[in-house]
Amino acid sequence: MGFRRRVTRKQPPAPPAPPPVPAGPPAALVLDALGRKCPIPIIMLAERIREVQLGQIIAVQADDVAARTDIPAWCRMKSQTFVREEALPQGGWAFHVRRDY
């Protein structure tokens, strides 16, 4: 008894994935703290958050791992809303904060 060889057909390549669409409103102000260690990103945020109107978003770009916990903690302590964390293509993250007061 002989075995038949199974013929497999190549699948066409999948189309490229669309670029990710940021969730939520765009930032009214973007602070570049890339390359700076904490607490500098938080100090920059605290100094400049009043430049945006109530309800607007300020984004802090940082690549220090400590910012991932420090910025949400600062938002809780200062009664501001941490909206989201977004990965940056060049490395690091953009932390979106809504000014509540």
Task: Please name the defining characteristics of this protein.
alpha+beta; 101 residues; elongated; single chain; 4-stranded mixed beta sheet
Task: From the alpha carbons, calculate the radius of gyration and give it in angstroms.
Answer: 22 Å
Strand residues, percent: 15-25%
Largest sheet, strands/sense/barrel? 4 strands, mixed
Output mean pLDDT: 89
Protein described:
With 101 residues, the protein is α+β, with helices and mostly antiparallel strands. The protein contains 2 helices and 4 strands, in the order E-H-E-H-E-E. The model has no long low-confidence stretch (mean pLDDT 89).
Brief summary:
The protein has helices at 40-48, 67-77; strands at residues 29-32, 57-62, 81-87, 93-98.
Explain the layout of strands and helices.
Blueprint (H helix, E strand, L loop, with lengths): L28 E4 L7 H9 L8 E6 L4 H11 L3 E7 L5 E6 L3
Parallel strand pairs: 1-2
Antiparallel strand pairs: 2-4, 3-4
